[in-house]
Write a structure and sequence with these properties.
The chain is of the alpha+beta class. The chain contains eleven helices and seven strands. Helices cover about 40% and strands about 15% of the residues. A hairpin with a 5-residue loop joins strand 3 and strand 4. The radius of gyration is 22 Å and the shape is globular. The N and C termini lie far apart (about 80 Å).
Length: about 240
Amino acid sequence: MTDRRKTHPQKGAARRAAGQPKKPAPARRTYGQYCGLAHALDVVGERWTLLVLRDLLLGPRRYGALLGGLQGVSGGAGITTNLLAKRLRELETSGLIERCELAAGASGYRLTTLGAALEPAIQELARWGGSHFMHGQPANERLSLGWMLLNLKRKAKPVKTPVAVEVSDLDDDRYTLSLGPNGLDVHAGVDAPSAAALRGDPLSIHRALFRGESVARLEKDGLLTVTGKRDAVRQLMNALHAAD
């Protein structure tokens, strides 16, 4: 006896070949309120959406890099590949991200001007969440050096003389901190040689860059390694802690 369910894909293909329209995609859920916040949440309020945008604030990313960056500790709860694909399609349709070509012909995603305009809101949400709901890192929560470094953009004071410092963790996750007249820019990877490089575990880097602890002391204790021009690291520290 023939299983009729197996004939459905062929019927669908036949309908498309005959010029019949495809079944329309389901309409996006909406709050149905004439309010700026409600309309914003219609676009970015789904689970994982803001975290995808947060990771793209660090620069263009390949699909695999986005997927890997949105996983939990030791294979714990994280975004699934199907859900990430769905979120990327939604963001692309909304005009917040676009596809782009990366090094060696690889394809990836990057923020559009509209998507990048969300950075102040994302930064403020991160500040609010960190101030009120983060009290020590739980063992079941992952810490990313990139997420942490993004928060430095709120602290840094502009400088007249530009300087770039590479920052990396013990897993060789590398970022470039570019300081200049417009403040601090943080992006993943190293596009050009930096004046100096700072390497260590994320918590030791946090102690130096966020708390203002002595880099020399942390280096003496074996927690940080500094190479290149130490004046560049000093300039970065001064910009981060000018008002401390």
